[in-house]
């Protein structure tokens, strides 16, 4: 978690510095040219600058150790701050882009742009700076994906560490937004019609909305309580089932409680000839073996239960649609 956390901080810091400079330049260019697309991009960069601050706050606060009021730590706080980033992207970026675009399409925008060359110069510099930040985010995501043994696309969809993914999506949207803004300004300049500028602004709003929805969905699942990676679940189930004291893994629950931190709860049917002291020792040993086997496993709770308990059977069937004689939905094939 240390190296990955340091990489996330570097990614966010580079994105903050790039977006701060870009935002100032775009604001000046928007004021000079009167371009709706440029104004939308300026709002986008301002939102992204604030977003990097939110991500840094989330990284810092989520790393606090567990205490009495929060016995599982503060790992999920990172998801709150990243969810706020999604709200900011939509609220400050997408809605303003839609507003600027619609105003222009309705004929309230400037008919003639002043000095579009200034806009082109700013967009070129913005594209270069965004590309630097985007490259760092790509390196961070790909390194994390390789570490987890996943393709980078699958990692983006399944990760429990949304910070670098947030920067990657923001910077990807920024690069697309720069191209859309440049196209809108160029078509306005060539045709003399501000409609193209308005269309560019609306399309920027569409891109930002898509990014906001993607980030919102990712963090919403993590906040609700997403299960661990199926490979980790398979490891836990196989390890518990192989224990000589265990007759059957009755139920297995996992939940992501932070970046790289997983809570494991298992109900086990132990052999009937074991004494209570033997079961206690087995629970302690198995919990320690699981933590040693996978560094992500943070807390382990093992509960001895009878396999044929009717209430427990109903709970498992209601959750998975399976009987207790089945290996479970996450058992390895």
TrEMBL record:
Membrane-spanning residues: 12-36, 79-99, 119-138, 173-190, 202-224
Keyword Ribosomal protein attached: no
GO biological process: zinc ion transport
Organism whose genome encodes this protein: Thermomonospora cellulosilytica
Keywords for this protein: Membrane, Transmembrane, Transmembrane helix, Transport
Signal peptide: none
Location(s), subcellular: Membrane
Main location group: membrane
Coiled-coil region(s): none
Membrane topology classification: Multi-pass membrane protein
Keyword Chloroplast tagged: no
Alphabetized Pfam families for the sequence: Cation_efflux
GO molecular-function term, one example from the UniProt record: monoatomic cation transmembrane transporter activity
Full protein name: Cation diffusion facilitator family transporter
Residue ranges occupied by any Cation efflux protein transmembrane domain in the UniProt entry: 12-223
Superkingdom of origin organism: Bacteria
One GO term describing the cellular component: membrane
